[in-house]
Task: structure prediction
Amino acid sequence: MSDVQPMLVTVGDFLSHAQTLMPLTLCQGEEELGNVIPEEAINRPGLALAEFYQYFANKRIQVFGLAEMTYLKSIPTPLERERRLERLFQEEIPCVVLTRNRTPPPELERMARKFRVPILRTPLITSRFVNLATLAMEHLATPALRMSGTTLDVMGIGVLIEGAAGIGKSEAALGLIERGFSLVADDVTLVRRDARAQLMCTSTEMTRYHMEIRGLGIIHVPSLFGMASVTLEHRLDMVVSLYPSDPLLEGDRSGLSKKSRKILDVTVPLVELPVAPGRDMAGVIEVAAMNQKLAHLGHEAAKEFDQQVIRTLQRLKTRKGGGAR
Result:
């Protein structure tokens, strides 16, 4: 089962993802990283500091750049600065970001503690930060699909392994990790469609870097196999669906009948593999990924084999026709 759901972006989510795009650190408020950021856009609270709140976007990240900090310094007394900031923080803003590596004034720190608002800091100029922060928020706020399945990076091919409970998804994934490939998500995979119409997979924060192996329990993958055995995010290139082997239900064996699935309006190749006792599913999935990689390069073995068979039959037919004369 899978369901599309809008993502609730927290300050902690933003900080974690934004740090992959730019330098960004937490000044204070680690306990408040769970604050939700309801809107994607970024706001500069200059008008609010001047006490104009008619159109104040309080549900956005609030950025204090050069103009805002200079205006704060121009306020004659610390008491008045504190009053202006208190009025701002009463609007229940999610977080504050200081650009140009500015040190937060004491009044700002006090109000942030009082209203439980985290303060972040970046060395970037304000315009650069706003651009990158907007990209980060757009990425995080995109509706995500929760899919039951284990996702891995197999030679650059993102493979999501699905199937009924107990079919052996995690065991097959473990075999692939032992072969040197990396885990993206176990059991539940979050899938997002990016601006290039590519599907990107990641894990839930709760299960990240962990796997459940029946009879063994929960394992921490990087502790056992090294940091190269995990990947935070990867493109989805194919879905592998595992099902119990049944000779009476055996389907196409040539590979000419291509299957696919629509996920968030993107067509993804689908490979259905029967599971039988003693069958090395990790090896079969590895070969399926290799085959998909060749297909990306325009090389499709099933079609080439079919064309070779047709050419051979045509030659045989021609020889027979010539012998009859």
Notes: The first strand starts at residue 2 and ends at 5. Residues 49 and 241 are 56 Å apart (CA to CA). The chain has two domains: 7-141, 145-304.
